[in-house]
Amino acid sequence: MTKKITVIRGDGIGPEIMDATLHVLEALGAGLSYEEVDAGLVALEKHGELLPQATLDSIRRNGVALKSPLTTPVGEGFSSINVALRRHFDLYANVRPAKSFPNTRSRFPSGVDLITVRENTEGAYIGEGQAISEDGEVATLTQKITRKGSERIVRYAFDLARATGRKKVTAVHKANILKTTSGLFLKVAREVATQYPEIEFNEMIVDNTCMQLVMRPEQFDIIVTTNLFGDIISDLCAGLVGGLGLAPGANIGKDAAIFEAVHGSAPDIAGKGIANPCALLLGAAQMLDHIGQPQNAERLRKAIIATLEARDSLTPDLGGTGTTMGFAKAIASRV
Ligand code: ATP
Ligand code: MG
């Protein structure tokens, strides 16, 4: 039986890396079928809106989307499409793996294999209570943490550990200073942890976490944290393993999940056929895990690693002279 996936080809390098990714998925024989819909600049030109209803309907129907980067036009009246998608489907978990890969420009070519699970709907990013005094001298912002929001994100992290055979969950917080908000998150995390006795649980203050990540990243397995800390830490982790070209992410909710590359639409190299497809490919691997095809996800990751090891057809960002599709074919030949 084939599983239908919503595919959004996106803007800039989006269509190029999506073609490459679908080519590799084909070689994998994952038994997927695709429903292509528009979002972003392409949608604005074709349908007069950035996020057409048909696109939302498709994601809701299929429950799973693979999405290339989207450009949000700068200017009045356009808010981020990615944020709009997260809100619409209540995609509360932002899941960002960071893994060392060979032959990348990374400070940690081995030893890092961690996942950041970031709460995606509350904390400092609710946009409420933002005010600046009339004289422009005082600014305020409200943070909101709820038991429900904390519980579902921590539970997600532990369930992910169980499903993927990971051993440890670290709750990252600042409860010593942000006693109410971060305090509530930590309290709930401790409670949830007792329900997963087979998985090691520890807690770490966010500033120390940053230092530990840079000094001994191999000590981390799954990190779970609130919105703002997760935003910063997940980029830090992407940097540890060599940056944007290899960083995938997933936004997961109860009814829908969207898998993507962390990088943007890279207009500076769009249309040249030299974009690195690995981030979206690794997003596709997360998607395969999510839809119950962990063996195919693993085959895909192994093929990427083998291709990097062989330095076969690497794109310019990895120091090679290959093309997007050439790289994809090299990976496809190894799945
Ligand atoms: P957007 O406005 O969509 O966020 P951006 O240019 O601000 O686009 P990114 O697209 O994330 O931000 O790109 C930042 C830099 O990294 C650019 O120089 C881009 O060329 C490079 N880059 C991003 N993704 C890739 C990729 N997959 N392969 C090669 N280079 C990339
Ligand atoms: Mg950008």
From TrEMBL:
Keywords attached to this entry: Oxidoreductase
Q: What is its EC number?
A: 1.1.1.41
From the Swiss-Prot or TrEMBL record, give the protein name. Answer: Isocitrate dehydrogenase
Q: Has the keyword Oxidoreductase been applied to this entry?
A: yes
Q: Which domain of life is it from?
A: Bacteria
The top EC class, named as a word, is: oxidoreductase
The coiled-coil segments of this chain are none
